[in-house]
Write a structure and sequence with these properties.
2 copies of one chain form a homodimer.
Chain A (H helix, E strand, L loop, with lengths): L1 E5 L3 H5 L1 H11 L5 E2 L2 H4 L16 E3 L4 H13 L3 E5 L15 E5 L6 E5 L4 E4 L5 H8 L4 E2 L12 H7 L6 H4 L6 E7 L5 E5 L10 H5 L8 E8 L1 E2 L3 E9 L2 H13 L6 E6 H11 L9 E9 L1 H17 L2 E6 L3 H12 L1 H8 L2 E4 L2 E2 L5 H15 L3 E6 L4 E8 L6 H18 L18 H4 L2 H14 L32 E5 L2
Parallel strand pairs in A: 3-5, 4-5
Antiparallel strand pairs in A: 1-21, 2-3, 6-7, 7-11, 8-12, 9-10, 9-11, 13-15, 13-16, 14-15, 14-19, 17-20, 18-20, 19-20
Helix pairs in contact in A: 9-11, 9-14, 10-13, 14-15
Chain lengths: 497, 497
């Protein structure tokens, strides 16, 4: 299988030495990497099936350097791919053969902790977890918690609008970022938002969050921190019918209860996780819900009782309630290790990421089971049930001829089902290159043109991360602007590694 | 005092009869209003100091008609001002002499109530309160509750990103809108979002919300509804020092408690409200906090006890806790009637709307008191204390020479103080024409240019609501595009009525 990427600009490639020299002027010392061997770590992100060495890697350490690099690239028509920690699962940080890979790894400083306004100002290369670690001594934390939180950076979280098991109650990245500093492709620096949640003018923070590196490069971020809940306890509830588990999720939300996290696993996922971490999961159920309630102790006690009653009414067959912090963490350990656990039972797996309206959960699961039979491939379902964000893991063996293509076709069909049921192609992993060519399943041509007009408002020459998100690259001129650019931008093929 | 508006296009005015006839073709019957007398109700919005009759009023009733009207205006270079119920306080719906006033008042249908997905699909002319009324029989409600909720429409709420006393806990409009249908100035119709909270592509919903009618015309809205909390109770806490009340607000939030509403009034506001509605407010205090806790009964009881303890520690001198629903509503009655109450004690008042980081509350209040002395004008402070959204009401008498200008200068200084303290020019009333010329206090020229590039991505000819939000109108061509448009767009003066 191949993915089409923008055709390399030979005139840029011909000037490679000159470009590297110019970049070294801006970022001296070890900030420019150009040898093939040293560039290998930057060839792919978490979607490792696709690889491409960049023309050169630049690792600036100040906003001024970022501004100068972008200004230089803009003046010289050089494409730029921004990169955080490279944990993206949709290929958003895949380099371009003729592009500068702009790594933000040196932006590691926590600039300000402001408890009075519950805000922390950090550089984009600070990891998600490091923010919580910097404030937990005072009883605070940063809410979004993607599985990769030890490694992934806040800059990457903004690019992908990352979620996590707690986003049901506390929101995605977009709900927890108050402001940022962003460098445009022209080198201009703009400030968006601040420590207040309101803002005058257009909501640029919302546009930047989830924009997958196509609009600008974030060089500073102000996030909201929350006080750690007084108590957190979890229930582990088993069901012999997966539809009953889906009903239970709907009824809990319908009762006005918003758990801190509400995750579902199906039988294959339960068995794989249990064999891996021995969390004490029941093995005779078809679906397992892990439901965490947090808040003041007295509230948590009451909510646990109500959730237990709802679960029983929905036909749960097992229910365990954590009585210690250690046990709560054990309940979660299986869920958090579900991906590597599935990796142990299948030579390869493909992790999908789609969203459906919560009410359609049982229907979506039934459709995925039908597809599993059609494609003759196993599937393990692990997902953020509370907000309808599915993560089906398609099991296959890349060494068996045709299985990889079948797995990818199966995955695409799952995303089509999500859209058909009124859902979305992606929940928290972004579009990148993985789901780029499925965008027309969800958006009309008019919708996509309007999205690209917005892109043109930030990057009229299409130099920032081209080939990602949009299936067809329109030049801004074609979108109703008379802006003229020399080179055309057709797609070239990149084979899967 | 005058405000500069785009100079009327004489070539459009010369074709008025022809334009009206064309619009009647699109919207037959009573959908086009062109007589001077009948257009009077459309001459201003809630910022009644400024008035301007439009060229013609059009009241379409279908998305198709909106699309055809905009397509016609786009093809003919005619400016368009969209309007909901006209309750805006910043002049966002002020007509243009050469513009079509596009009223959405006929879009009054609730299209779908989907309890399973907690979503309601409505037309933009449905009032804010009507959404709650349509779902309250099942125990649900729509959270944002601006004071004007009986009259203001959901379309207008999106344009202004409206808040209300409950937005501290439940978010502003932007946090409660899931999707919309929008007609671009070209007549093209796009769908944004849906019933899921996640979305692929750019967050256009975020950009549209708060865009004050400059990007497109909303013709359908999908909102999130919430289950009504089991219990709600309020505390009324008095302080003899306004700084102590500010500290109390900060400590409540710092303790991890997010009240359903937390409002503050200062002495002039307390006295005016008490004289008007007899809510039982203490008259010997300098500041009064009304704090509402909602949720399960057992949680509310505990939180009330904690808030009471915090208030005492901060030096409260009076504290009353509602023991019945009737009493809770009485506590709120004074606050909700504060604006008309202040209207009874002063011939005129100017309602400001600015935001500061919560931690700066005492400082902001001290600065406003200094300004009050400087300008020799009284001020009553009523505000959403929990989220730092100030509503100082400047008291003046328009019949006394110079007082109006002094009040406006005082108001502008208050907003400058907000920005200086790290806050924002507006909280929930929008920029419109009222705060347009103050935008450079908050944004750099680069910021404003980028905001206008985004505007150009939606409306390259600047036909939608020009003269609002941005202090200087740049043609898209000047913003780095080569798009060429015939007419220039300088400003002409409109005198305050």
């Amino acid at each position: 299988m191949t993915i089409q990427m923008p055709e390399p600009d030979v005139s840029v490639l011909a000037r490679r030495d000159e470009i590297i020299a110019a970049l070294r002027e801006i970022v001296p010392g070890e900030g420019v990497i150009s040898s093939a061997a040293e560039m290998v770590p930057y060839e792919s992100d978490g979607l490792m099936a696709y690889r491409q060495p960049p023309m050169v890697v630049v690792l600036p350490s100040t906003t001024k350097q970022v501004s100068q690099v972008l200004k230089y690239c803009h003046a010289n028509g050089i494409r730029v791919v921004p990169r955080g920690a490279g944990t993206s699962l949709s290929g958003g940080a895949l380099p371009l053969a003729d592009g500068v890979l702009l790594g933000l790894g040196k932006f590691k400083r926590i600039r300000e902790i402001d408890f009075d306004n519950r805000a922390v100002v950090v550089e984009p290369g600070v990891t998600n977890l490091a923010i919580t670690q910097a404030v937990e001594h005072a009883g605070f934390y940063y809410a979004p918690d993607p599985s990769s939180q030890i490694a992934c950076t806040i800059g990457g979280n903004i690019a992908e609008n990352s979620g996590g098991v707690h986003c049901l109650k506390y929101g995605m990245t977009t709900n927890n970022v108050l402001g940022c500093e962003i460098v445009l492709i022209t080198g201009e620096i703009i400030k968006i938002g601040g420590k207040c949640t309101e803002s005058a003018g257009y909501d640029l923070m919302g546009v930047i969050t989830g924009s997958e590196g196509l609009l600008g490069v974030v060089t500073e971020v102000t996030v909201r921190i929350l006080r750690k809940p007084e108590t957190a306890r979890a229930l582990m509830v088993g069901f012999t019918e997966i539809e009953a588990a889906g009903r239970c999720v709907a009824e809990i939300i319908g009762a006005g209860i918003i758990p801190g996290g509400m995750e579902m696993m199906d039988k294959p996922a339960i068995h794989a996780a249990e064999a891996f971490v021995h969390a004490g999961y029941p093995l005779d159920v078809e679906a397992l819900l892990i439901i965490e309630l947090d808040g003041p102790g007295v509230e948590v006690d009451e909510l646990i009782a109500r959730v237990e009653t709802i679960a029983q009414r929905c036909g749960s067959t097992t229910c365990q309630i954590s009585t210690s912090e250690q046990q709560r963490l054990l309940f979660w350990a299986g869920r958090k290790a579900a991906f590597p656990a599935v990796g142990r039972i299948s030579p390869d797996y493909l992790c999908m990421d789609g969203t459906i309206p919560r009410g359609k959960l049982p229907e979506a699961l039934a459709r995925i089971r039908q597809l599993s039979e059609k494609y003759q491939l196993g599937v393990a379902n692990v997902f953020h049930a509370g907000d309808g964000n599915l993560h089906p893991l398609i099991l296959y063996d890349a060494n068996k001829p045709g299985e990889t293509d079948r797995a990818e076709a199966f995955g695409a069909d799952i995303l089509r089902v999500c859209v058909e049921l009124g859902g979305v192609l992606t929940g928290e992993h972004g579009v990148g290159i993985e789901k780029r060519d499925l965008m027309p399943e969800m958006f009309s041509e008019i919708d996509l043109m309007q999205q690209q007009r917005l892109k043109c408002a930030f990057d009229a020459d299409g130099l920032l991360n081209p080939g990602k998100v949009f299936p067809t690259l329109h030049r801004c001129a074609e979108l109703g602007r008379l802006h003229v650019r020399g080179g055309k931008l057709p797609f070239a093929d990149i084979s899967r590694f």
